[in-house]
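Title: Comparing notes on inverse folding

I've been comparing how different people in this forum approach sequence design from structure. To keep things fair, I'm posting one structure and asking everyone to reply with a full sequence. Here's the target:
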């Protein structure tokens, strides 16, 4: 089986072909540099994404937030359940942590706007 991954590490957008036998990667081709291979390998084995969403603010309003690094895409719904239980308390400043260690691997949920 082959999977085509578009590397998003730079504007070249190389089309990287990952060949699998079962769940084993047997070859990776089409990448122009090693970053493309690492990206494609991660996309096939444990894809990661940065979460961007909002949480409510006590007293009214919503606060834009994001994970400060990419988290496992397969566990996004688990993380969203945690996030939906959180409310911010004013004042909040950009970079303030709303949830520490969201994924058990060091990613935090942080504010991306101030709320005075
Ligand atoms: S493989 Fe290398 S050159 Fe190609 S898009 Fe990825 S980072 Fe850019």
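Reply #1:
Here's my take.
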């Amino acid at each position: 089986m082959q999977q085509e991954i578009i590397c998003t590490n730079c504007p070249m957008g190389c089309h990287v072909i990952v060949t699998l036998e079962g769940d084993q990667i047997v070859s990776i081709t089409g990448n122009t540099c090693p970053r493309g291979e690492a990206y494609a390998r991660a996309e096939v084995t444990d894809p990661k994404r940065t979460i961007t969403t909002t949480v409510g603010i006590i007293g009214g309003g919503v606060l834009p937030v994001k994970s400060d690094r990419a988290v496992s895409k397969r566990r996004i719904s688990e993380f969203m359940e945690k996030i939906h239980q959180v409310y911010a308390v004013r004042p909040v400043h950009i970079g303030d942590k709303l949830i520490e260690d969201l994924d058990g691997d060091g990613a935090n949920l942080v504010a991306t706007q101030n709320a005075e």
